[in-house]
Every structure is written in C-alpha cells, then in structure tokens.
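Quick one: structure for this chain?
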Amino acid sequence: MLQTLRTAFVIASLFAGLGAAKAAEPYLVADAQTGEVLMQNDASEPWFPASTTKLMTVYVALNAVHDGRLTMDTPLRVSARAFRAPPSKMGFRPGTLVTLDNALKMLMVKSPNDTAVTVAEGVSGSVEAFATEMNATAKKLGMRESHFVNPNGLHSEDHYSSARDMAILARALLKDFPEETGLYSIGALQLGNKIIRNHNGLIGRYPGADGMKTGFTCPAGWNVVATAERQGRRLIVVVFGSPSPRMRTNEAAMLFDRGFAMSGTGQTLDALAASAVTEPPNMRDAICRGHGRAAMLAMQEDFVASAVAGSSAAFVTGRGGMPMVTSAMEAPPAAGAIADEKVSFEPTPVFIGPKPGWTGPIMAARDEAADAEASPVSAYSAQKDAKSAEAEGAKAVLKSVVKTPVRLRGGHLTPQAQARKSAASKRVATRKTQRP
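Got it. Here's what it folds into:
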C-alpha cells in the first residue's frame, strides 16, 4: 500500500503542470448487451470524433444494403473529389472501381478519407446528401450530441459527437448488423503485394478485443471506440482526446479491465444526463504544438506504465488529465496488458475492380477480342472498327503534317517540304506516262 501511494505521488507530480493545460478527456464504459453505463467521465460533452466518424459511414452504408439500394458487391467509382481528399488515403485514381465490401474493409483498417468519400457518393450520390443521411440516422438512434458534415471525420467546427453517442452507435452496429461484426476486427489487409495494418492497438494485444475504430486529428486528439468480449460479456469503451496512440490504447485496456470487474449499475446510455457544454474543445495546442512537450508526454507514458506495473496498481486518466492510481485491491491490474511488440495477423485480401483479377480496360479489350473470335459477325464488326481506327489515325497524322511549317524565311521550302514536293512531282509524272 505504501508503494502504491508513493507511485501515485510521483505520477501526480509529473502531471501537475500538464493537467492545467489540458481539457478533460471524456471516456465511457458500457455493456453492449444491456446498454448500462459502468463508468464515465464527461461522456455527454461534445467532442471532435475524427475518424471514429467512419463508424457512422459504415452504419449508413450497411443500412442502404439492408434497404436494397445496393449490395456489398456493388462497384463504387472513385471520383475526382474523392481523389483530392487529404491523407490518410488509398490514393486510387479517378475512375477506379472498388466494391462496397472492400471499401468498408479499407475504412475500418486503414481509415482512408478518399474511400469514405467514394462510399458516400456511391450510397447517396454526393457527400452532402450522405451527411444528411448521417444526421437523420443519428437522430433515429438517439445520438443527441452529434452533427456530421462529412463521411470521414476531417476537422470541421460543425462536425462533432460525444463519447455517449459513439457508444450508442457502436451498440447499434453490433445489434442491427450482427452479420458484419467481422469488419471491425480485421488485423491487416492485403492489397496486391501490400500489407496494410490496423491502427487499433488493442486488436491482437488485449485479450478479447474485437473492434472497432480509432481516429486522430490535432483538434480531437487520439480517439478510440473499442469493443472486447470476456466470458460471453461484451463491453464498449470510448476514449476521446488522449495525448498519444499509446496512451489511448493503455487507457482503453485499463478501462476494459475495470469494466469487466464491475456489475451493472442500472444507468443506461439513453438516460445519461446531457452536458451543459455546447461546443467541443480544440485540442490542437495541447496535442500537436511543441515537439519538446510531445517528447515529455512519451517519457511520462513510459514512466507511468513501468511505475504502475511495479506497484501492481491500475492507472486511469481522470478529469483534467490527472492520473488516478488505485491499488490492486480496488481493481485488477491492467498495466502490461498491451504488448509493445508487433502482432502477426493473417491478412484479409481485398482488391480493386468489380471482381478479383479485374484489370479494367485491358481486361475489357481481351473480352471483346474473345467474343470476336467466337462470332463471325463480331469478327467482321471488329475488323471494321479496326479499319475505322486506322483511318482516324491517318487523319491525325495528316493534320499534324499540315500544321508543320513548310517555308523558311525568304520563301524557301524546308527540306521536308521540298522532299514532299519532289515525291508529288514524281507521282504526277508517273501517272502521265501510264495513261493509255
């Protein structure tokens, strides 16, 4: 106990200067089955969700499939607008086709902003129409602190949510589309020869972790909506505004440990009191400005992890960023649950095009050639098209010749023009001699 108190004092001293400059980090632990809130801190306060927004993008897309508007195999075309989206992105050129199924897998693993735009335009016709669907869905689900303007979570002052709302959304995804839960637990994708790893540091490291989505922007900090199952019980953890990805992962793991040790509270997500705060804080100064401060944060993270592990205590971030250390008598030890080494995953294959192995216009040309060989009529048509193409090519060459200058200064012909004139004169003379 004495060692635990010493650890708490040292950690509090390290963070004393940090807490004043840092906004509260909202967090929430809820039971996925019952919707009961086990733990929470400022969970109803608005926050910039960053790429956790893509959970709503997935929900709207899956709902469109449910309604019969498209299927998981529907090919979506990458637009110029999607191609211009800032990173993280897949970088597919305009006109590239990607099925909805592959697009959603990419969203959950790599979190590409361009693919989110492709999904939005494929489902609703435009980003703006898709955002309207997102907000209508949020209202239907009871997400009262949310408003969306894009499908990817890129920063906008008018794009926000809350830890409570994201827990409601995560629960709705699990409940309404149980057949698609595998989307959220993919550890890695394989696209051609490229392996793309998931940003979620809990998958493969925390026992029972099976999803869902991370997110980061400077105004939002490092966010995560996570799920884990233990002995048939699934919990949802939301952490917003963490100062680094490692801290985000450790905080989520510790909240899972504490949540699995708790029983129901009777308080539900729907009944959680609304916050008096109306605008999300901008974390840019605290998260992204000052390399020295970022290095100090990393040192503090390493110290906290090692100190807590040495004292058999659990560490949970409290209001204002101040760590709360509790003895192992009060909660099961959580530090050390997340390993630093890389985890190997069997990658899930994805592809571009409407089907595996599709190579776009090249494949289409091969298909047309095969059809021409199988049908005399098609063969005749193909030959005719080839002759037309040849004629068009000849016209293009003729145009380029006409545009070539034929005279130099002083009126003299260029060597090329002189050669053409001589050849023409010879042809005329030959025709005259060949007349009957």
